[in-house]
Amino acid sequence: MKRIYIFLLCALAGLQASAQSNFYKLSVGAGGGFTVGYGDLRSQTMSPAVYGNAEYYFTPYVSIGGEGQLGRIKSGDTSSLYANYSNKYKAASFFARVAAGAFMNHTYRHTTLKKLVRGVYVGTGIGLLRNNITDRYPRVNTNPKIDQGKRASWDAFIPLNVGINYGISEKNGYERFVINLNYQGNLTFGEGMDGFDQNPLFVRNTSRDIYTFTSIGIKYKFGPVGYFKR
Fold first, then answer.
1. pTM confidence score
2. Rounded to 5 degrees, what are φ and ψ at 148?
3. If you ran DSSP here, which 8-state letter would residue 100 be given?
4. 50: closest CA among 152, 173, 178, 182?
5. Between the CA atoms of 22, 27, 31 and 33, what dihedral angle is there, to the nearest 10 degrees?
6. What is the pLDDT of residues 5-16, one digit of tens each?
């Protein structure tokens, strides 16, 4: 009878251990990719950019954080005398993200495919864009229908993120490193991104400047440990 009692206790402990997982609550990350600007010019160009971020995890699948970006946004026909610009920008944002794993049952056997699916996430937040127009053609505007804005300006923006996190587990089951792929669309509340605007005396411009940032990076997780009931 005593052996049966000990066996039941061990089985119960095993069930308790499998019903929860441990995770680090903090992470820092960095990476790079390319931007594409969609403003008042027709042609788009891919340009390099880098980022760094930090996150706090409420669960392995729900987090908040902040991010900084540095790079260029270019558009227009840069190979001819048509209008074009180059924006050496900086951006900072705060965001919240939630992954599919927050809504999934975790009692099944782990596989690579299921781990990838659990890591798919969406997110949004608020940010501030620092525009620095370093190159713009035409340099002197002669078209009354076009306004040339300031070379340096600030625009607020809303980032919309979709991406995937794939964690690399250590021997103890904790995920220390995470590979991240992210696509971010940024809707700005201004006309400073491309340095051009349509003169409201002639044309009413109701469309906002948008730039996208496609990136790949890596995160390092650390700090206090949280417990997630699967």
1. 0.84
2. -100, 120
3. G
4. 182
5. 80
6. 444 445 444 444
